[in-house]
Amino acid sequence: MVNPIYALILAGGSGERFWPLSRRAHPKQLLCLVSKRTLLEETVARLEGLVPCERILILTNAEQEAAVRQLLTSFPKENIVAEPAKRDTAAAVALGTGWVAARDHAATMIVLPADHIIADGAAFRETLTLAADAAEETGELVTIGIKPTWACPAFGYIEQGAPVRLPNRADKNAIHRVLRFREKPNPDLAESFLRKGNFRWNAGMFVWSVPTVLSEFNRQASELADFISQLRAPGSFEKIVRQRFSKLPRISFDYAIMEKADRVLVVEASFDWDDIGSWRAVANYFEKDEQRNAANCAITAVDSTNNIVFDEGDTTIALLGVHNLIVVRTGDAVLVCHRHQAENIKNLIGKLPPGLQ
Questions:
Q1: Which of 209, 243, 268 is the last residue of a domain?
Q2: Domain that holds residue 182
Q3: Mind listing the pLDDT tens digit for each residue in 287-334?
Q4: Average of pLDDT values for 93-104?
Q5: CA distance 51 to 4
Q6: What is the signed CA dihedral for 78, 61, 202, 121, rounded to 10 degrees?
Q7: Does one domain contain both 241 and 298?
Q8: What is the pLDDT of residue 161?
Q9: Does 289 lie in the same domain as 178?
């Protein structure tokens, strides 16, 4: 690598699936779900040794800005930016691209979600280094693919094509050409993807050179390209974000750019990865008793099986004659629901008192 690497961390989110622990002003990435650090803190820490803090932009939103700043007190204050309105990931990536391009028009740029669990930081940095090399040497957009461990219908998929070799690199079969992106499949289609073997989960991690992504914005999304151009003007960043961001189209980056791009590579992740999209997924990280009850706290269970329990404090929770429940207790709310309703917790939010949303 010759060019410096910058990183954009996407740290917005609705805070719905992990209610009552999460709230709109305090979503998943600001929670300590599986360790003593929040998912956002873990994301920043994983970049240590690869991208210095002064070259990391954390993009959040106005509702969550105060919580992010309170959490990351030692992070450069000017490198935390709040979107004035929610406009999906295409606008967010455009904002980040403008921020990076204003500092180094030839830089390599990484885009990362703030809410993933990755235990092997060294392998993560190794994969991103390879992806950065690929982006710089080929001038193509690069995405990170996760080898599926099961036929998950909740993820988007990437269909891999022929392998791509970089000069002087021995990473056999780590880089492939992307044939196409596939939306979240039904269970049968997900099973067929798994059987074929050349499909990877789309984790929403991207790497590219600034000139490459600017070219794609210019070719495919002229309104976003014009926004980026205005952001790059000296001293205009905050003003343009304030005046123009809310008027940008509401569209995902995958739809706006990636799915239409004709030169895209996928680098297979050499690290572990988990999206933990619900309480059921988080339960995999809790201790389990002989009755398959998973909990982060002390529980007493009699004739109770397969329950998930989370307590924000140090209360002992007792279960008697209940099965397949999710029980979550915080200082001001308690959730009790069937574990198979975990994906529908967000349907509760609008019915709650405003102070609990």
A1: 268
A2: 5-268
A3: 999 999 999 999 999 999 999 999 998 889 999 999 999 999 999 999
A4: 97
A5: 8
A6: 40
A7: no
A8: 96
A9: no
pLDDT band at 138 (very low <50, low <70, confident <90, very high): very high
- What is the model's pLDDT at position 128? 97
Please state, in angstroms and rounded to a whole number, the distance separating the CA atoms of residues 240 and 230: 7
Q: How far apart are CA 310 and CA 4, in angstroms?
A: 42
User: What pLDDT score was predicted for residue 170?
Assistant: 67
pLDDT (mean) for 148-171 = 89
Residue 115: what pLDDT?
93
The secondary structure of 20-35 as a DSSP string is: TT-BTTB-GGGS-SSS
d(CA 332, CA 173): 51
Tokens of 171: 């990473």
Q: What is the mean pLDDT of residues 255-261?
A: 94
Letter string b/e over residues 63-75, b meaning 16 or more CB atoms within 10 A of that residue's CB: bbbebbeebbeeb
Does 274 map to a domain? no
Into how many domains does the chain fold? 2
Instruction: Tell me the whole-structure pTM to 2 decimals.
Output: 0.94
Cβ–Cβ under 8 Å, residues 39 and 33: yes
Conformation bin of residue 168: beta by default, left when phi > 0, alpha when psi is -120 to 50: left
Q: 39 with 148, same domain? A: yes
Asked whether residue 88 is assigned to any structural domain, the reply reads yes
CATH number at residue 18: 3.90.550.10
Phi-psi region of 341 (alpha: psi -120 to 50; beta: other; left: phi over 0): alpha
Max CA pair span of the chain: 67
Same domain flag for 124 and 70: yes
